[in-house]
Amino acid sequence: MAKKKTEKPKDNRNTELFEALALIEKERGIPVDFMLSQIQKAIITACKSTYGGNEDVMIKMEPDTGIFEVYLNKEVVEEVFDHNREIQLDDARKISPAARLEDKVGVKLDPKDFGRIAVQTARNIIRQGIRDGEKGQALAEYQSKLKEIVTATVEQVDSKSGNATLRLGKSIAILPKNEQINGEEFTEGQQIKVYIVDIKTGGKEPRAIISRTHPDFVKRLFEAEVPEIFDGTVEIKSISREAGSRTKIAVFSRDENVDAVGACIGPRGQRVGTIVEVLGGEKIDIVEYDEDPVKFITAALSPAEVVKVDIAPDAERVCKATVPDSQLSLAIGNKGQNVRLAAKLTGWKIDIRPESGFFGEEEEEKEKTEAEDEAEEAVTDEAVEETVEETVEEPAEETAEETADESSEAE
Prior knowledge:
With 411 residues, the chain is an alpha+beta fold.
């Protein structure tokens, strides 16, 4: 018994079109619906160019069934003067038996009939649509991750500038050398975490501004690693950072039963240890925030001990922190780093002094006090002299008057 041959579709181009669109969606992330709208736009433009400006077009596109048909609508008339816009009644009834004068009938078109210029225009529109789709996808992807940490893959490292080219999902971003942690080196294919600081949309395509040195990079790492921060029990009040070297972070607990610092450190230091590993060994000081500036500044200067903090009465947010002589270098830090980070963390200008005082400081204070006393005495003496002069002048005036009266009486 002879096998029946399966009839192949006469034209499978429609199926291939939708398969190609599905592939574009998979590889580039551009939705099929978006591409169909661009194709429709291209077809209308091609019809307008080919058929004397007639853009009254009906397009049927059904990805599920593979239907892709284009119809140019023409008006039914008795006598045709414009073949691009009109159709004779008898010809119209071959398409639609119920057609009547002044009706519109859709004449099926074959895209092959479009002129060369029209086809080229349509191709350009579709290509531009693909570019716009990719741009829109990149922008949407960036916007969904703005101010967040993402995992990126290193694709290339420029040996001269040190800039790293990273792949973020389906997009490309550049991590400049000055936004990398000091001393770290990347290899192609390596996965690293970066923080999306901002998005620039002025160029041909959106550009993500990424960083590993931004203070909020550390903040987001703590939010991801510490459940108490994520659920709002513990709040990060401020962060100061010198990437690759040291970070200070001030935390506050909204629940008196929860230790903010302990929650960030984690059991056996596991939580903060994980973050330090991501940062390549960067030191992290976790301190407790306090509304009292004295307590906050004292904590911010850790690991150094602080004897006392004197707030300057006249200056704005200026203080003097006294530390044991043995803790002076620790309080100041290498090249002033510890006190500098503490100042950024608290928002106060901090002057560090040893408990025994600086050499010659007592003499300076004594001289300053003596100068102030002398100035005060000088002011007092001047006031006394003015009072005495006023007192002496008054009787003199009275004596002159009396003498005048006596002379008058003698006469």
